[in-house]
Design goal:
By secondary structure, this protein is mostly helical. The protein contains four helices and no strands.
């Protein structure tokens, strides 16, 4: 289950970023920072909606995850 959510999070983060603008380091940091939040807040969310779920639930996720998602957005 943990691996599936990690892969879902990775896939959703990569899917929303244009290939030329992806910052692999930012994505990897977000995967690490948001893993627990994704499992607790967005566990029923399909892979393609993971980032949207996390962003929609900013008030329920850790500050580390919020910061990591902001870094991913900034790296676009």
């Amino acid at each position: 289950m943990k691996t599936m959510l990690s892969l879902a999070l990775a896939g959703s983060l990569l899917a929303v970023l244009p290939a030329a603008a992806q910052s692999q380091a930012a994505v990897q940091a977000a995967q690490k920072a948001c893993r627990a939040d994704a499992m607790s807040v967005c566990s029923g969310t399909p892979r393609t909606g993971m980032m949207a779920c996390l962003l929609a639930n900013k008030d329920k996720i850790s500050q580390a995850c919020v910061d990591a998602l902001a870094a991913v957005e900034a790296s676009k």
